Amino acid sequence: MAGTFAFYFRTQNEPDTFLVRIADASVHLCALAIEREEGRQQIDRLVRFDALTGLPNRQYLYHHLDKLLSGNEPELAVFFLDINRFRKVNESLGYSAGDQVIITLANRLQERFGPHHFISRVGGAQFVVVASACRVDEASHLAELMQHIVGAEMSAAGQTFELKACIGISHSIGGDRETLLAHAESAMERVRESGGSYQFFNPELNQAVMQRLKLGMALRNAITEGHLRLEYQPQIRAADGQVYGFEALTRWHDPHAGDISPGTFIPLAEETGEIEHIGLWALREVCRQLFEWREKGTNVSAVSVNLSAHNFRKPDLPRYIADLLNEYQLPGNILTIEITESAMMELTDEMLARVREIRAMGAGVSMDDFGTGFSSLASLAYLPVTEVKIDKSFIDRFARDRRVNALVEAVVSIGHNLDLTVVAEGVENTHQHQQLRKMGCSVLQGFLFSRPLSANTLPVWLEAYRSPLQDAQS
Predict the structure, then answer these.
(1) Which of 27, 245, 333, 371 could make a disulfide contact with 362, Cβ separation 3.0–4.6 Å?
(2) CB 79 within 8 A of CB 186
(3) 32-49, pLDDT tens digit by residue?
(4) What is the reported pLDDT for 30?
(5) Which of 417, 399, 418 is nearest to 408 (CA)?
(6) What would you measure as the largest C-alpha separation in the chain, in angstroms?
(7) Residue 45: its pLDDT value, please?
């Protein structure tokens, strides 16, 4: 640290001996003040931070939890990590090596979780991680990440080895810090006794997590074992009531658990990464089914397939689609690729380039669930989409909510001005049908026209279909 000490004179003058003595004394006093402040900061660090790792210590952890709980944090997860058999590291490699292992673990945890979560060292080989606004399923995912980080290869004193942690989780809405920490530590002790990986303090949450893990394993096998199928929901042109196309919807029937709701398995697939494989399977199954229908004389003009942002991260996605179209002798415009609004906004320039490659084949690209994410109407002007789907939540409310009605009308108007097809999802009654038709909405989809159809019943439905407009005119 450096500084300057200066005198200002109204007239040009050389400092006398008295002023020099004042300056010397003042500099000495300033140095003492700086040393005092540095000492105060050092004491503060010792009080609040762990001397070995630099992480917050138990006292700082208490302060942080009190602050979160006083602010009515909606959901809080506290993870108590204890490194298994760490005493053997100290005994076999020495305490210096043990300290280095603790520092390495602290750095790894801080690097991975530090920007978003609070990490503290509370004892020898024990750490506590606090995650605010954390749901139960997110807590499970974080615990698995922690095990992965702790279990990564470690080197110390010329030896290479792997560690494992016992992790106890206390998940709560409200409560106090003592209870949260005690519950997390109690759950950790149960993990140590049972030899597992992690547990929640609440037995009901443990059961839910185990069920979710079991379901995730079943989902991995669902594609290869033929437990997934597609159903097809008709899409109807609003102007004349004729069939515009179909949306392919993935369904899962597990031989043990029965029918699993898409609201359950789609988020699970996104969490586990299986959503990418489901998307590729759906593309192939749609192309195969279209070929089969065409062979039997059933004319299906177009089918929409849902893909995730995970699919667009793969450079070979356009080639995969091109190969399928070639294998099943299909024109590109028979496919429309749907991607949700939120996922669309996550696409990088490279991923958007893949979307444009798919467009170049003649396939359509639809922004699904429009209005539920954070994009603006202006984004439609530069995104490579041919279609916008208004989410069902807006269609449910637009007839009775003036502001929602205005939003739907704006989407329809801007969509047409940009030469986009505008699809309304969740149309369930004739009033919605009539209002959307008056607005000029291009295509309607919902239970008013049909529930999703199996591949076998679709040709029968298509042959028997009579549009609501024909019924109204007869």
Answers:
(1) 333
(2) no
(3) 667 766 656 565 555 688
(4) 72
(5) 399
(6) 114
(7) 58
225-473, CATH topology level: TIM Barrel (3.20.20)
Q: Which amino acid is residue 39, in one-letter code?
A: G
pLDDT digits (tens, 9 = 90+) for 219-267: 888 988 889 999 999 999 998 899 999 999 999 998 888 999 998 888 8
Handedness of CA 271, 194, 169, 61 (dihedral sign): negative
The amino acid occupying position 14 is: E
Tell me how far apart the alpha carbons of residues 433 and 363 are, in angstroms, rounded to a whole number: 27
Q: What residues form DSSP beta bridges with 235?
A: 245
Strand partners, 49: 56
149 in Cβ contact with 180 (< 8 Å): no
Tell me which CATH homologous superfamily contains domain 58-201: Reverse transcriptase/Diguanylate cyclase domain (3.30.70.270)
The tokens for 453 are: 């159809």
DSSP-assigned letters across all residues of 72-91: T-S-EEEEEEEETTHHHHHH
Rounded-to-10 torsion of CA 134, 136, 137, 143? 80
Give residue-wise pLDDT tens across range 176-186.
888 889 889 88
